[in-house]
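fwd from M.: "can u put these together and see what the complex looks like"

so here's what she sent:
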Amino acid sequence: MNQLRRRLNLCCAAVCLLAVGVFCYSAAWCEDQPLPAGDDLSELSLEQLMQMKVEKVVTASRFSQLVTEAPASMSVITSDDIRKYGYRTLADVLRSVPGLYVSSDRNYSYLGVRGFNRPGDFNSRVLLMVDGHRLNDNIYDTAAIGTEFPLDIDLIDHIEFMRGPGSSLYGSNAFFGVLNIFTRKSGDVGRELSASAANYDTWSGRASYGTSFNSGLDVLFSGTIYDSAGQRSLYFPEFASSPSNGNTFNSDYDSSKSAYARFLLSDFTLTGLFGSRKKGIPTGAFSTVFNDPNTRTIDERGYVDLGYRRTFPDLFTLSARVYYDHYGFDGTYVTDNGAPPSTTNLDTALGNWWGADTVATLTPLAEHNLSLGAEFRQNLAQNQKNVDVNPAAINLDDQRRSVNFGLFIQDEYHILKPLRISLGVRYDNYNVFSAVDPRAALVYNPVETTALKLLYSEAFRAPNANERYYQDGDTSISNPDLKPEKIRTVDAIWEQYFMENYRSSLGGFYYRVTDLISQTTNNANKLVYRNVDNAEAVGVALSMEGFWQNGSKGHLSYNWQQVTNVSTGALLSNSPRHLVKANVSIPLFRQQLFVSPELQYTSQRMTLDGTKTNDPIIVNLSILSRDLWFKGLEASASIYNLFNVHAQDVAGEEHGQQPNLPPLQTIRQDGVNFRFKLSYRF
Amino acid sequence: MRLLRQIIALLLFLIPPATGFAGEGEYQVKAAMLYNFAKFVEWPADSFGGDSRITFCLVGNSPLNGPMQSMQGKQVKGRTVSIRQITSPDDVVTCQVLFIPQSEQLRLPAYLQQAKNYSILTVSDMERFAASGGMIGFYEEGNQLRFEISLETAQKRHLQISSHLLKLARSVR
């Protein structure tokens, strides 16, 4: 504690000195260069005007218009935020969003929304999209938010996270929220090179090229490689009696490569995306041999998407797309079957699918904004395989095909000047079951600085191929008759703007989940997924955002939630009662140097055996310079977990399957670490 | 908890005083560009209501008002430029061009809502204006002014934007 306080005081002193020093400097540099009076610029052509140099522009307030009009609780994170705060992955971004929390088991990152984040769930209850293209795969329905996310975060223009059920528009998986990633325009990217170096032998490189041609063709190409050795040595006290005394070496590695290409011509956009990531598993999960660096997972995800969008004035706007997607999973698990020192188990999955969807928006009557949509998907392959290498055995070889479609309609009716009502419903058909999900929202603006929103929505999550068909003939058995999960949510939100610079928001929610799919044991002691549980939750969210004249911005939020299992009345595991986020970004020198600290507090969470994790306060600090040394160069230095707090994340069932060792209840996260990054645009 | 309080105090200390700072040259260049935009836009024949003038409306009080005043009386495609400062969304009926400055961010929805009833070219220097229902949004690249155009939004209001202007702009769908 003393050490912590000493470090905090040092940090205080350092930042204060820095701030004072640069404020003095900036005063000297604040010289306007006005154009000589009497110059008649209006005689110049636009081309000439665009060549003129002007003093740096600072936007006074940047409240996103999207958030105020949305009939939902929404958060927007821009590429400016990503650069200033030094976010490395989507998971880093989501950790800063009010009400969200991320746990990591050194293999995947799991997103918790509204207090729900059960260990072992694959983020299948959040819909993840890139430019409107669904990224959840057709085997596990995962929303990849860690290094396995197949798009370089530098290509992101902004991220919209909408809290609450979204099935009335998007269908399955939009259970707790919808995360939509929007990519940058090719003109915004230009020619860019980027490189970064960080702790744990981590480095990455990116090259991007975006341009438009006279013919109107617009292209963007980008490729990224990333490689990290991870923690070369990790210690797990629970495994102290293992041959290596609880130590594991060189098994936390993480490497990935990804590519992105986009062609835009007239009303058509053709996009291709591919990413592959390999991650070592250091935790001895799935009863693999502890301290064997050969246990690893490879995830690959790619798609090709052709989109069309056109407005027919006075008629409607039509958008349509057709796509082909691929997902591959390759898990190598070194297990100990009593047979030769170790045997290898290969767990693989392959998903291929194609689909088409279309949306038309029109205003048939004044005051009405109507949207109609249809979506079709055919799963050409949903294959899962599990084999042992030595002695050879095929435990599972399951191949499926399926079809699903959905139809939706939504109307936004501007009844009175300050009152808007939005009603929508979607029908989804999955052969063995169908789902109907309605949504109603009321948005009331008594004065333009106030918004009151009342929302009711329902959503479903279809059981995925893994839950229905996976069985290894030994410890688990499949359940093809699984039904979809269902959620019903009520939200009440009050948003208030004041003093031109600030926006505050206060909201409350209640939700009830039925037919929650959980892993249980049957009479023969085999693991099987069943629709057994019901969960209920209440929560309150409070947040405040501010923007200042000189370009500073920040936000502060507090979330309280309580999620219980309806039949037992017990709190759910891995669900924190309290969440606090604080972010502030300050320009130190014109608009060319920024310092951006952020803080995240997560209260204790319950592990699978009922004990509690700690409640860490994580502080990150990032410094960004833009065009400071020379034009086009952005350089940043970031320190993550500044006070070296040993945060604990909740472990899953798979971390307690070691035959001769006690289970892991928590997984310790990385201590203080840093990253340097350079980005050059020319 | 003590630690938490110290950290929050630290963060609060870093909140800077509000200091305004905007290059004067910037608004003179913006005014000239705004005047030029009108040369490359076609309004439907009935938008002018028999008036021989073309009216640029500026919402509220912004640094653009001064430089724009010097455009008064100039010619755009045979029409005389008239500059008006307006303070209420209901006043947009007389406008052909509507400029909404950053300071009017809160009232943006009200102005855009009213503008939807007429063929008005909406322009602003608010961030993401062209993606939030506006037609032309200024942004800056390095130390130079640029603009992006949402052709879709303009077409919905029957405004024709010349390909010359579109080529100079970054397009927003």
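replying to her w this: Chain B has one domain: 36-171.
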